[in-house]
C-alpha cells in the first residue's frame, strides 16, 4: 500500500480516488487532479472506466453533480 499521497500521485495513479477522501477540504482542483491522474492509468478501457466511475461516485459526495459531470464529461 502506498505510504503517502505523493506516492499515489507518482506511482499509483489508479488509486487517485483516495485523494478525494483524504483531502481535508477537497476542492475543484482536487477533483480535476484525480481525473488527470486517472487519464494516465494504463489499463484496459473497462478497468479504467471503473476507476473513473468510482472517482465520480466519491466526487458526488463532495461536489455538485454539475461539477462532477463537467470534469468527467462523457466518462461520467
How would you explain this protein's 3D organization?
This protein is an all-alpha fold and 76 residues long. The chain has one domain. It contains 5 helices and no strands. The longest helix is centred in the last third of the chain and has 18 residues. The chain is globular, with a radius of gyration of 11 Å. The N and C termini lie far apart (27 Å). The model has no long low-confidence stretch (mean pLDDT 89).
Secondary structure layout plus pairing:
Layout: H1 5-11, H2 18-22, H3 28-39, H4 45-62, H5 65-72
Helix pairs in contact: 3-4, 3-5, 4-5
Output the structural class: mainly alpha
Per DSSP E runs of 2 or more residues, the count of β-strands stands at 0
Q: What's the mean pLDDT score?
A: 89
Largest sheet: none
Domains, number: 1
Which quaternary structure do these chains form?
single chain
Unreliable stretches covering 5 or more consecutive residues? none
Task: Tell me, briefly, the overall form.
Answer: globular
Strand content: under 5%
Please give the share of residues in helix: 55-70%
Radius of gyration: 11 Å
Question: What is the element string, with H for helices and E for strands?
Answer: HHHHH
N-C termini distance: 27 Å
Number of helices: 5
Amino acid at each position: 500500500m502506498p505510504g503517502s499521497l505523493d506516492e499515489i500521485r507518482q506511482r499509483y495513479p489508479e488509486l487517485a480516488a483516495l485523494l478525494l477522501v483524504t483531502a481535508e477540504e477537497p476542492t475543484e482542483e482536487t477533483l480535476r487532479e484525480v481525473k488527470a491522474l486517472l487519464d494516465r492509468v494504463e489499463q484496459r478501457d473497462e478497468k479504467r472506466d471503473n476507476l473513473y466511475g468510482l472517482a465520480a461516485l466519491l466526487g458526488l459526495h463532495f461536489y455538485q453533480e454539475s461539477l462532477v459531470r463537467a470534469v468527467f464529461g462523457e466518462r461520467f
